[in-house]
Structures are given as structure tokens and as C-alpha cells.
Amino acid sequence: xxxxxxxxxxxxxxxxxxxxxxxxLIVEDVDVELAPGEILGLVGETGSGKTTTALALxxxxxxxxxxxxxxxxxxxxxMRMDRSMRSLRGAVISYIPQDPSxxxxxxxxxxxxxxxxxxxxxxxxxDDGLVxxxxxxxxxxxxxDFGRRYPHQLSGGQQQRVMIAAALVCExxxxxLDEPTTGLDVVTQAxxxxxxxxxxxxxxxSMVYVTHDLAVVAQIADRIAVMYAGRIxxxxxxxxxxxxPRHPYTRGLLAxxxxxxxxxxxxxxxxxAVGVGGWPTGCSFEPRCPQRSDRCASEMPPLGDVADQHxxxxxxxxxxxxxxxxxxxxxxxxxxxxxIKVLEVEGLRAEYRSRREIVVAASDISFHxxxxxxxxxxxxxGSGKTTxARAIAGLHPVAGGRILLDSVELPSLVxxxxxxxxxxxxxxxxxxxxxxxxxxxxxxxxxxxxxxxRGLERRxxxxxxxxxxECVRLPSSLAPRYPSELxxxxxxxxxxxxxxxxxxxxxxxxxxxxxxxxxVQAAVLKLLTDLRADxxxxxxxxxxxxxxxxxxxxQVLVLEGGVxxxxxRTAEVLRSPQHPYTQRLLESAPSVAEAVERWEADDQDFxxxxxxxx
Amino acid sequence: MNNLAxxxxxxxxxxxGQTDDLVFYGSSVRLHWPRFLRTLQGIAGLVVLVFVVGVxxxxxxxxxxxxxxxxxLPGNGPGPAAPLGYDFLGRDVLSRVLxxxxxxxxxxxxxxxxxxxxxxxxGMVAGLSRSLVDPVLMRVVDVFIVFPPLLLLLLLIVGAxxxxxxxxxxxxxxxxxxxxxLVRTATLEASTTGYVEAAVARGESMFSLMRREIxxxxxxxxxxxxxxxxxxxxxxxxxVNFLGLGSSPPAANWGLxxxxxxxxxxxxxxxxxxxxxxxxxxxxxxxxLGDAYVRSLGRSSASR
Lengths: 614, 304
Description:
Chain A is α/β, with parallel strands linked by helices and 614 residues long. Chain B has 2 domains: 1-32, no CATH class; 39-303, MetI-like (MetI-like fold, Orthogonal Bundle), CATH 1.10.3720.10. Chain B is built from 13 helices and no strands.
């Protein structure tokens, strides 16, 4: 709305081209335009060039990277995208990096850190009022006492607000935010997004919001630019693009996002994203595209207008189907296939002891998982969910209560468990980069549990490894590779194959998709669902993402501060949460479906047209 | 929908084939060796090291004179029969230089080998154990750290007499605590990773954990440390020889030669400069190699 009314542009970037010093292009032919008071969501997955583009707006490029083409205008003044922009960074256009705990100097009081910025730009003298005012602008207490705090005395959300205050203190016209809420929990994220919208409304600051998360973008962006392999593939109003994406990649992304408000079957995209230096000659998306034609392989489609304020880089954009909402089937929502309790946890208590104190990580945790059932354990960081998983796996001592596997109590520590007990409970870790030994090949990683826990004959092992890799949809040609040669999604599949290698009854999945891109996450979630159906596996899914819960779990336990505060069937808990904490989580979690419904309701209010969709 | 979701693994594999050599995937750890040897620093370090080791190993075979034969006037400068002149007793400096490298190498590499054997074992056991073993082992290590190195060695000599064996034992005692601490820290760090936890969860033995999971992943800090620690061993051994507490005359040794000939440094400087230079070349080259290795690690971990 605002963009259409604006008469001049705040930022205009044309024909941006960024490459590695070795010659490979990272970003090519990117145009970005921003009206005053507009929020542009720059969306893309790992390696799409979104951060590179964001930094280029400040005339900055990382080591080994150079901006080799493009024109930048900020507020009507043309800029050279190089070191000459230094004095303007922070004053005319400022940048907010992803991780505030690393961006703030830990040895500087936050007031001093902000004041330094003012001095660097020669704005006013040591004016305490200025720092106080800017802290108040971002919703922090503007007291002297607060300004004298060190970063470690603030929460993650407060640290990010301080970063925003520092970015705003010199009154820039444009702020570039690089994944500013990615490390924060959903409640803090929701508050921060509200704050950003309020700042935009009150002060007409233009923002470029860089993120991988379309659900977040749906909450705050006026316009969206989707990047793939260094190019913008689709650009337009947020309401237009998210309701009716015209590029197959945008559609694929939207179909991959698990949505807690409208749970549905995910459609993972085939293939993996092309990386730097691997761009095909024609359209970069052609190898993965379901609607490719002959010319796609040889020719890069232009970013052409398909409607007012909506441009798509695809020859066959008219064929792109709408994002269908296939509601979850009976299987996804049902409990165990047989009503046999595989894993039971009774009154579990886990602690961290140090010489001085005992911290209770989890107490009085009771639940069970039936054969073939998926139970989700939801909570924010520090809620004790990982400790519970580790205790079940025998990696953390049990301070009270019992863990039973098929009605037999498991010893607390893994050393006391029998080979068979160790085999039947497997744990898959959060970070796929650290879950695999970098010095072992895929084959070694998968073969080891087969040999150790199942005692298979040496001769039979290669065949078994091939079978296991097939189970997780990986080609056996990957077997001789090292983890560093695999993508994040492939690594996580190998980690799942390693868990399957033990032929377990229960797999404990600790945030196994949180480090993955959404399209990869969708594929891993689909894999888990398939495995559950094919092998009768029971899953304990530990996550902070309600969308993931809604998509694959039948039962959900909500954890707060180490205690279960709400439990029940997933559909019911998500529909009518009883506990205030669950309610707060649900309200804060961003959802594309809800945003789309909001826009459609708006349309009806304006045009009075007949309702469609839901 | 199905043509999107239901791509066969084979299709994915074929497509993946096109995008195989992604820059940001980096290369496997195995490529560090050739890469670090390809840098100027690595090449220079290797060339110098090969030269010094060559002198030490081949030297005794080509030395023109016996290392104890008196062949000229003490302290005389270079002449046609002795390109580096004569030492404080009139022995041929060149022959003694050629002979004196081997003990230097033995006195540094043998203790270094034992230092790492003991240091790595102690460090990994301490780092992996969740019981009293860790604090007990580390306090024992600390006992050796609190002694000044030279004092420790002098105590040992008082107790066991001089000789190469005693010197080597002393070197190990001086050097291993640092290695043990380094390895313990690296082990602690590695033991929180998913792959070590997965190994613990499937019930791998302590030995298997150390050998299969941890050791291969902490070689980087150990190798990086090796350069500095090796130089320390060479310098310390030379220092002890300089004090006359290591190899006893007439055996030649670069460290000992510097000490013996310091009185004739005015008349025949070569008798001091050449052994000193060779010692310097040895330590500097090893350090350069270590440094080049560390740099190659930094770069590859950035690209990973």
C-alpha cells in the first residue's frame, strides 16, 4: 500500500553482480527497489545470495568477494559500492546482523557502544539524552542504569533491540536486517516483529528484511523478493506472492513449510539447491523444476512482469499450480498402529549438579509412546527437552523416576544397558554437521552400529549399508564420501540411516530439522512419516517448531521450565490450548496460512467479493 | 503433487551429479597436507628441514676427519684442509658439525615421540573420564608444571647422573604436561559433539572411543602444537649441552660446540656460527611447517 503511494524511492539497486575473486558469480542481475517506509522481505535458502545482496546495499562485500557491477542510489543520491560508503554506513543505511550476542562488544556497556556510533559519525557531542531516547524508541527502558549494562546482562531479545537502537541512532533512512530473529524463541520474535512494524509506521524507515522464513516475512513484509542461485526469481507484493506464487520455486517453498494453524501434507521439492560455480547454463532451477520445457535448459528466463507489481523469472509461469492444501490424512493424525506402549517414562527427573548448586532440568515427566506413534515434546530453549531425550538415551543420569522399554526398566546409564536395549533406542542429533564423525566415511558411520549392535557378518554389511541408504533415499554412491562432502540434508539423512542401522524400536529426534532449510526439512519430515508407516517405528520428536509438530505428531507434550504444562492430541492442543504458556506460544508462532486468510478477509472487506478458499 | 514429491532417488542422484563440486562444501580434511605444503611457507620450511636433517644423517658418512682427531692449531680460521677452521682443541670444525647433528636429532625426536605418546594418552583419558580419574591425572600433571624446567632436570641429574638417557627422560617430563593439557581440552570439546555421544550411546569401549572417534579429530591442534614443542625440545637440549650436562666430550653436538668454542669466537667465529645457524634452521623450519599447517586449517575451516 505504502509502496504504491510513495513518490520517490528510498533505495534503488540495479543490475547488482557480485562474484568471488576466483571468478565464480554469487549474485547476478539483482534489482531491488524500496519506497520510504516499505519493508522488503528478501527470502532465500542457504547459499542463495541473500546476505551478499543485503551487504551490497551497504557497499560491503566479504573477504574474497567483490562487487563487480551494479548501481546504487540511496535517497536519490548515487553511491559507489565500495569503501567510500564507510561514512554512510550507520548514518544513511545501517545493518543489523543475525546474532546479537556476537555483534555486541561484550566489554562495552551498551550505552557506550551506542554513543561510540554517534561519535564515529560526528553527530552531536556526548549527549546522554540521545542514547536514552533511542533506547526508548525500541521499547527498552531509557534509564541511565540500563545504558550502563553489559550485553551479557541482557536477554537475547533485549540484545537484538540494542542492535536495532544502535542501527537507528544516527537516523538512517534504510535499515538492512539479516535474519534478526532467527536465534530467538517465537514469543520474543513476535514481540520484535511488532516493534519493527511500529517503528516503520511511526518513523517511515525503510527496511530490507533478509530471512529464510516465509512465515516471518508473511507477518511483516509489504513486498517480497525470492532469491534462488544468486538471482531474484519472483518479486511482488507479499499478499500477491504468498497467495498465488507464480515461480515453481516459490511455490515449492510454500508447499514445504509446515504450518501449525493449517496442518497439511508437505510437498518436498526434488533435488538440492545449486551452489556457487554450479549454475547450469539455462535457468538455475531447471534441474529441479516440475514444469521445465526445452528452452529452460539453454536460456535464462528474464524477470518479467506477470501482473502489476509482480515479476517472475520463469517461461512457464502460467503452468505453476496453486499451493494445494491437502489436509493431513488419517494416518498422520492417528496414534500407534497397535496399542502397545513401547517407551514409558514415569516421573522422570533430571538434574545438572555442580559443586555449589543443583539445577533441575526436568521433573515429574511422565508419558508413553506407542508402537508406530509419533509423540512431540515442545518447548523453548532451556525448557529441558533435550535433557529428557539424553536421559532416555542413557547419556544423562536419571535423578528420579523410571524409563521403561517394553515394560522393562532401563538402567540409567548406557554402560549398564544390554546390547539389545542400546540397539532398540536410538538418538538423532540436532546439528547434522557435528553428528557425523568428520573422519569417517558414510559407509563407516552406517556400518558401525550394524556390526556392533546387530553383530551382522562382515560379508553382509556392504549390502545392508546400501539397503539403509536406500531407506533414507540416498544413493549408495554416497557411501565412500566424507561428511564434509555432503549437504546438510544429506548429512541428516545419513544420521537417520545410522540410527536405523540398529533396527531400533524408538528413535529420539532432537530438533533434527532446525538446522535445515525448509525444503530440506520437508523432505526429512516426509521421510520420517514414511519410515513410521513402513517399519512401525515409534518417534519421540523434540522441537520448538509448532508447525513441525502439527505436521507429523499425534500427541504433543508442552514443556515449560522442565515441567509438562499441557498434553494431549496434537490437533486438539493446537486448536484450543488450555495452558497460558501454550496459548502464548501459539499466538506468537508465525503462520503463512493465517496471513493469507487475513489478506483474503481484507479483500472481502474492501471489495465485498464472494469468499473463496477456506 | 506427486511428480514433485515422488522423485526417485536415482533422479536425485543424477541431478546431484551436476552440482557435485560445490565450493562451499569445502574439501575433506585429508587434503590439508598437500595444500599446506603448496604454500611458500610450507615449501621453504620443508626444504630447510630436509637440508638440516640431511646434514645430520649423511654428515657422519662424509666427514673428512675423525671427530676427535686434532688436525690443526686451536682456534685457527678456515684453511684449505679445514673449510670451517679449527675448534678450541684444534679439531676440524666441519667434521664436528657433520657429526654433531645426529645426537641433536636423537635428543629431540626421541623425547618428543615419548612426550606425545604419554601426553596424548593422559590427556584423552582425563578428558573422557567423568570420574575422579580426570582431576587426579591432571593434578599429577600440574606437579610437573610447577617445577622450573631446568631445576627439574638438575634434580634428575643429581639423582641419576648425566647422560643422554637422563636428558631424554628430563625432556619428556618437562614437555608432556603441556601436551596432556592441550589434548584434554581438545578431547573435552570433541566429546560433546554428536558423533561422540552417538558412539557412547551405542556402547563403544573407552579405547574404541579414543582411537576411532576422538584421536582422528584432534590431530589438527596436536600437529599445530608439534612445531613449537619440537623447537622447545631442540633448544632445551642444546641449552643443557651448553651447560655441559648433556652429551660428554669428545662427542660432538651442535649445542655443546657453541659452548666449547665460545672462547675462540674471535679467532674462528665459524666454530660457533655454523652450529648455531644449523640449530636455528632446524627449529625455524619445523615452526614454519607447523605454522603453514595451522594456516591451511584456518582457511579450510572457513570454507567448510
